[in-house]
């Protein structure tokens, strides 16, 4: 029996969302678990998966159109079902069809997709196991299936494998125009960019920021990192140490591990640290959960994996929502020092610069030292100056004596 496919609540408290892309066309058969469409949220793309076997009978919302959560976006037919009165189905649900919506669907008979047969390369008779969606995406991108490595069950090639082989930028295309003879390109704002702009203005306008600077001597940490990387299969970065030090400091100074609400201060029992990641459409902050209890190698692998998927818009909402503290690291760009804007409802954000060789005084003697400058931006409603200074001193101590964060 035909039924409506509705826009899901793809992120917490979302009221609207937009279809970024339909991965199937009208008449395509669907297996339970198949991706039907990609939905654009404020921060990422989320796959809409089928709950049961069906046929995509009718698409009601075209890509790019924003609709309310719960609004009908398509019609699903039962297998073998035809000639569905879509207008009556919408009317029964209390929804008015668009003026040009046909009363009776004339969708062509669905193509059989229920049998997941392997693809056979005719040149060398290699059997390639690949999902229908991944096969179609690979064809669209002109990829050689024999060169793709599958990460799905039993080595099956799935959608993420195709995306990893050919990342397509999600940034809107620029529009050439001119005003008073001055030529320029006008790039439409993405949903993420609009959200960032709104939240940053709100943060600066409503959150009382104050700032604390600290310099960390890095000689011991750099020496320890060199020792670890001599034996580690994958290199540990300075940033991985920073994530670990921030998390351990939050556990040692729990009054700093908070977020602000209008009715209460929330104190968290675990140290979930967010990392600011730059993407083509703006910043996003994936979360490293329970970072204080994880080994450096775990943090390194998790940060790399989250950052990689963040840059192609493939984070799940639970992977970038939450946390109590943010790190923004521009050291890899050679930035020595900067101040960051707090990401509400977090109470603080740590801006990290590059490690620099500088003259330092040690035991009354002038020497050259390795120095890392960090600036802590703090919400004064949630955290007082003395508490922030206490936390920053603990963080500095862990960075300068890194074995303390590993014990």
Automatic annotation (TrEMBL):
Highest taxon above the source species: Bacteria
Oligomer status and interactors: Forms a 24-polypeptide structural core with octahedral symmetry.
UniProt-listed Enzyme Commission number(s): 2.3.1.12
GO MF entry, a single one: dihydrolipoyllysine-residue acetyltransferase activity
Enzymatic reactions: N(6)-[(R)-dihydrolipoyl]-L-lysyl-[protein] + acetyl-CoA = N(6)-[(R)-S(8)-acetyldihydrolipoyl]-L-lysyl-[protein] + CoA
Gene3D superfamilies: 2.40.50.100, Chloramphenicol acetyltransferase-like domain, E3-binding domain
Pfam families xref list: 2-oxoacid_dh, Biotin_lipoyl, E3_binding
Cofactor binding note: Binds 1 lipoyl cofactor covalently.
Assigned GO CC terms: pyruvate dehydrogenase complex
A GO BP annotation: pyruvate decarboxylation to acetyl-CoA
Cofactor(s) listed in the protein's UniProt record: (R)-lipoate
Domain annotation Peripheral subunit-binding (PSBD): ranges: 129-166
Job description of the protein: The pyruvate dehydrogenase complex catalyzes the overall conversion of pyruvate to acetyl-CoA and CO(2). It contains multiple copies of three enzymatic components: pyruvate dehydrogenase (E1), dihydrolipoamide acetyltransferase (E2) and lipoamide dehydrogenase (E3).
Protein name per the record: Acetyltransferase component of pyruvate dehydrogenase complex
Annotated NCBIfam families: PDHac_trf_mito
InterPro entries, per database record: 2-oxoacid_DH_actylTfrase, Biotin_lipoyl, CAT-like_dom_sf, E2/Pdx1, E3-bd_dom_sf, LAT1, PSBD, Single_hybrid_motif
Family as reported in the entry's similarity comment: Belongs to the 2-oxoacid dehydrogenase family.
Segments forming domain Lipoyl-binding: 2-77
Lineage: Bacteria, Pseudomonadati, Pseudomonadota, Gammaproteobacteria, Pseudomonadales
CDD domains: lipoyl_domain (cd06849)
Keywords: Acyltransferase, Lipoyl, Pyruvate, Transferase
